[in-house]
Design brief:
The chain is 31% helix and 24% strand. It has one domain (9-238): 3-Layer(aba) Sandwich (Rossmann fold), CATH 3.40.50.300. It is α/β, with parallel strands linked by helices. Helix 3 packs parallel to helix 6. It contains 9 helices and 10 strands. The longest helix has 14 residues, at 113-126. It has a 6-stranded mixed β-sheet with strand order 6-7-8-3-9-10, sandwiched between helices.
C-alpha cells in the first residue's frame, strides 16, 4: 500500500527477513515534513522491525528508504542520525553511571559546539524534573524520569525525522501526558514523526494519519478524521483482526494485546 504522495520520508516496497521468516513484507509509506503518522498493530505485526529498518538498525532485505530525496538504504544508523533521523524506544537505555547532563550531552554530539549549551538548557526547561537532577547519575532516576531523559536526548539533537517505538509504555498518565505535551509543543508541524504505539489515546493526540500493520504488511491507512477517538479506532482495528485476538482499546490500555516486539 502506498502512503501519501511526496514527503520527507519515502519507504518503497520494504522487506525485512530473518532467514526464512519475513517480518516486514513490501511496505511502502510516505511521511510529509511536519506530519505525524501512527502505526498500530498486534504484537509481532512488524512495527518495531519497520522502524528499526528505517533507522538503519536492521538490514533491509529488499526495497528502499529515501529521506529528503536521498536513498539512505545503504547507510548505517550513525550516518542516518547525522541526517536528522532519530530512533526512540521504550527499550532504549540511559548510561546509568553518567549524569543526566552527560546523557543529554551525548545526544548533542551532532550539533555545532556553539549550540550545545542552549540545546541542553532548552531540553531541561521542557522537563523540569530532569533539571533538578542534572548532576545526579541517571541510574537513580525513576522509570518515568528515564523515559523523559531518553526523549530529551533525542530532542536535543534537533531531529528532522523522529521514529518513536512505544514511547509511552509503562508510563504513568502524568508522565505520558508531559511527554506528549513536549513532543506536540516542540515538534508538531515541524518534524516528521512515525509513532508505533499500543496507547491509542496517547497516539491520537499526536497523529495526523494512522496505519495498521498485520503480519508485516500494511492493511489499512487513514486520517484522523476517519478515527477521531479511541472507540472509532478500536472498531477500525478490529476489522482487520480475528475475533478473540485479545485486543483492548480503553484510554488506559490503548489498542492491542499489550507491549512487546512488534
Amino acid at each position: 500500500m502506498r502512503g501519501a504522495a511526496g514527503g520527507s520520508l519515502k519507504v518503497r516496497e520494504l522487506t525485512v527477513a530473518f532467514g526464512q521468516v519475513v517480518a516486514v513484507r513490501d511496505v511502502s509509506l510516505s511521511v510529509r515534513e511536519g506530519e505525524t503518522v501512527a502505526i498500530f498493530g498486534a504484537n509481532g505485526s512488524g512495527k518495531t522491525t519497520f522502524l528499526k529498518a528505517v533507522a538503519g538498525l536492521l538490514p533491509v532485505t529488499r526495497g528502499r528508504v529515501v529521506y529528503r530525496g536521498e536513498d539512505v538504504t545503504p547507510l548505517p544508523a550513525h550516518e542516518r542520525a547525522a541526517r536528522g533521523i532519530r530512533y526512540v524506544s521504550d527499550r532504549s537505555r540511559v548510561a546509568v553511571r553518567m549524569t543526566v547532563m552527560e546523557n543529554l550531552e551525548a545526544g548533542a554530539w551532532l550539533l555545532p559546539p556553539s549550540r550545545r549549551s542552549a540545546a541542553r538548557e532548552r531540553v531541561l526547561s521542557l522537563f523540569p524534573v530532569l533539571g533538578g537532577k542534572a548532576r545526579r547519575p541517571a541510574g537513580l532516576l525513576s522509570g518515568g524520569e528515564r523515559q523523559m531523559l531518553i526523549v530529551g536526548r533525542a530532542l536535543i539533537g534537533e531531529p528532522t525525522l523522529l521514529l518513536m517505538d512505544e514511547p509511552f509504555l509503562g508510563l504513568s498518565r502524568e508522565v505520558r501526558d508531559r511527554v506528549i505535551e513536549v513532543v506536540r509543543g516542540t515538534l508538531a508541524g515541524k518534524t516528521a514523526i512515525v509513532l508505533a504505539e499500543h496507547d491509542a489515546e496517547g497516539a491520537l493526540r499526536l497523529l495526523d494519519r494512522h496505519v495498521i500493520f498485520r503480519n508485516g504488511e500494511v492493511v489499512h491507512e487513514g486520517t484522523k478524521a476517519e478515527a477521531p477517538d479511541v472507540a472509532a479506532l478500536l472498531s477500525l482495528f478490529r476489522r482487520h483482526f480475528r475475533p478473540g485476538a485479545g485486543l483492548t482499546g480503553t484510554a488506559e490500555n490503548g489498542v492491542g494485546p499489550g507491549p512487546g516486539e512488534g
